[in-house]
Specification:
The protein is of the alpha/beta class. The protein is built from 15 helices and 13 strands. The protein binds guanosine-5'-diphosphate.
């Protein structure tokens, strides 16, 4: 059971390792009492003022000095958790941090679970679930773009949209329920028409938010790029060129990269996930066959495929087989080994956007990067970075459920079905929206979300 908010909790809030400062955070009704037990504020006011940082010493009850510290109390409700919160800023050394935590635990605090401070902020109504989830996304963000999306969500951009939908649907439900209470008074046609219009307007707004999911996902998780092609065309060499460092095996024996290798990186500020695959060719080696199958399966799940061929050789059946697995809308043809010359392309390859490079000398890599940047910009849209975006699969699924329920409501009005049916659909839509913001999220969802957090947040 993660929801257990009576205790006063304590955790080290700063990252492990050596640092100038380390912070111990305490939240709960006994936070101030616990601080007073160990903190000697060197003659300052005995009653500490809220939100003011005090210099002093943290001492064991026998008087032993634990560290020279700064301490602050943030009294409820003006705190991260809306409870009394205390922070002790000591030197960033794990022995000191741990001793402070141990003493606070001896005096009655409990070690906090991952994400428990943020869980309390949510349970105490300071933030909704989307904003709580964004906290972990901000901490984990690996690129400026991902950080921007997460900060927007943390600041409430997504939940404001969801609350707007919720209010719209609640209004619809109130009108429909009024109709149910007075069944002899049929909803006049004009009213029904108006409800249909309001519903389809809301559906359109929800659809627009759903459409922003792809760009939100790419900004948050990075554009996934699969390096694909038959063996020995230079896929690993290209991966290495892009990574700027040797990472995968580069060898003359076809088929050495038998499985997939994945790297996350930033190129010109773009978050990318680069996946190198087993060479795709006809083979009877069972291990290689599996690698080839895994590579082919990956093609469907990525944003962009770099189809690598040896441009100095006439393309063959294995190249054509690789081409057949690709979606032309999401494929860039990379003609590698341009230093060895170039051959005429078979007709089926000529419709793809193509670039000549040499992975060995890195010539043409800049142009390839330009191609990837263009693809990234097209996928995320220039306005996508500024507007409120949907970037989380959980949110998307619930919003989709809500939109579908609303659509069924509209169709039931259209078909003049009894109002009870329509009311049920609207309640279902409200429930799905509540899962996004947390009002109706079951405990197992909360558990899944908050265990992704680090301790101390
Ligand atoms: P993979 O099987 O597709 O991953 O291919 P590798 O990256 O292992 O490369 C196969 C061979 O081609 C290695 O000997 C590389 O050094 C060589 N190679 C890769 N790129 C180039 C290139 O641009 N020019 C030349 N001349 N050789 C290359």
């Amino acid at each position: 059971m993660i929801i257990d908010s009576q205790d006063t909790i304590v955790a080290i809030a700063t990252a492990p390792g050596e640092g100038g400062i380390g912070i111990v955070r305490v939240s709960g009704a006994s936070a101030e009492r616990l601080l007073n037990q160990y903190f000697d504020s060197a003659g300052c006011d005995p009653q500490l003022t809220s939100h003011r940082l005090y210099y002093g010493h943290f001492r064991h009850s026998d008087g032993e000095l634990i560290d020279e510290v700064m301490a602050v109390i943030m009294r409820a409700p003006r705190s991260y958790t809306r409870e009394d919160v205390v922070e002790v800023h000591c030197h960033g050394v794990s022995v000191v941090l741990r001793r402070i935590v141990d003493l606070l635990v001896d005096a009655g605090a409990r070690l906090a679970r991952p994400g428990e401070f943020t869980l309390r902020a949510f349970l105490n109504g300071r933030i909704d679930l989307t904003r709580a989830e964004a906290v972990i996304d901000v901490i984990r963000s690996r690129s400026e773009a991902a950080c921007r999306v997460a900060l927007g969500q943390m600041e409430g951009r997504l939940s404001r949209e969801i609350f707007r939908f919720r209010d719209g649907i609640s209004d619809l439900l109130a009108e429909v329920e009024a109709g149910i209470d007075f069944p002899e008074e049929e909803l006049p046609l004009a009213d029904r028409q108006r409800l249909i219009e309001t519903s389809s307007l809301l559906e359109g707004q929800m659809a627009a938010l759903l459409d922003s999911f792809e760009s939100g996902r790419i900004l948050r998780d990075g554009l996934s790029i699969l390096i694909f092609g038959k063996p020995n065309v230079g896929k690993s060499s290209l991966m290495n060129s892009l990574l700027g460092e040797a990472r995968t095996i580069v060898s003359d024996i076809p088929g050495t990269t038998r499985d997939t290798v994945e790297e996350s990186l930033l190129l010109r500020g773009m978050p990318l996930r680069l996946i190198d695959t087993a060479g795709v060719r006809q083979t009877h080696d069972p291990v290689e066959v599996q690698g080839v199958q895994r590579a082919q399966a990956k093609v469907a799940g990525v944003d962009l495929v770099l189809l690598v061929v040896d441009g100095s050789q006439t393309l063959d059946e294995d190249d054509c087989k690789a081409l057949q697995s690709c979606d032309p809308e999401r494929t860039l043809l990379v003609l590698n080994k341009e230093d060895l010359g170039s051959c005429q392309l078979p007709a089926e390859f000529t419709s793809l956007p193509a670039l000549s490079i040499s992975a060995r000398s890195a010539s043409g890599i800049d142009l390839l990067l330009d191609g990837i940047v263009n693809f990234f910009s097209r996928s995320t849209g220039s306005e996508g970075r500024e507007t409120s975006l949907l970037s989380d699969r959980r949110h998307r699924e619930s919003l989709l459920l809500a939109r579908n329920a609303l659509e069924r409501f509209r169709l039931s009005l259209d078909a003049d079905h009894p109002s009870e049916f329509g009311a049920l659909e609207l309640s279902e839509a409200l429930h799905a929206l509540g899962e996004i913001t947390g009002e109706t999220a079951p405990e197992d969802i909360l558990e899944k979300i908050f265990t992704r957090f680090c301790i101390g947040k």
